[in-house]
């Protein structure tokens, strides 16, 4: 494809009003979880704006498809991937990218090994979201980073019997070392939370930004993010870069402040 893809970042897609049934608990995590009916509305508008594809097709050797390439990613590995997100995608003729926190496989509210095999068999991309989901991954040592990527990739590879070459960075804390160690683990597509369409190449690994959707974002917001000329993308970029300074300077203090803002225990 000739155009750079626009990537949207989702997390859990929830049926009903109990946001604790899938993925990580707590109010701050819940802020990233969409109601299933809202996601269907998102998907309708997003799919009409371009072609929802996988990274391998977006950067493959096949002749380019017309229209804007769009990637839809789903972080954490909550059980809603199989109960809500995948069925909605398939009903729209789309496939998603599901990034799994491997230490949580088979635990309450997260995907089981069989669920992950099923997602893969149904044509969705399965990738890593690290082993343990560090809150500040860029603050990890290089040894810790290597373990997070290497061990997570190995768990998923053993489950699926295929190479795992796609991943996303937990928490939005990115550094070059995060990408370098991902590349060493065989990752070829690494998604960050930076709201950009710019693609960076690090040791053969393509580093792609994403535009994040939160619980309060209505379908027109998602449509605006994938529009050809997007004030919504510019606004998210500006806000993200402002917070980036606070994250870098505040460290754990920023995380505690954020938790208090959302009412986490």
What does this structure look like?
- By secondary structure, the chain is α/β, with parallel strands linked by helices.
- It has a single domain, classed as Alpha-Beta Barrel (TIM Barrel).
- The chain is 41% helix and 16% strand.
- The chain contains ten helices and twelve strands.
- Strands 1, 4, 5, 6, 7 and 12 form a six-stranded parallel beta sheet that branches.
- Helix 3 (55-58) links the parallel strand 4 and strand 5 (68-74).
- It is globular and about 40 Å long.
- The mean pLDDT is 91.
CATH class: Alpha Beta
Instruction: Name the overall outline.
Output: globular
Total separate domains: 1
What sequence of helices (H) and strands (E) makes up the elements? Answer: EEHEHEHEHEHEHEHEEEEHHH
Pick out its properties:
about 260 residues; alpha/beta; TIM Barrel; six-stranded parallel β-sheet; four-stranded mixed β-sheet; 10 helices; 12 strands; about 40% helix
Task: Write a concise synopsis of the structure shown.
It contains 10 helices and 12 strands. By secondary structure, the chain is α/β, with parallel strands linked by helices.
Question: What's the topology here?
Answer:
Layout: E1 6-10, E2 13-14, H1 27-30, E3 34-35, H2 36-49, E4 50-52, H3 55-58, E5 68-74, H4 80-91, E6 97-100, H5 113-121, E7 125-128, H6 142-160, E8 166-168, H7 176-184, E9 189-191, E10 199-202, E11 205-208, E12 211-212, H8 219-225, H9 231-250, H10 252-262
Helix pairs in contact: 2-4, 2-8, 6-7, 9-10
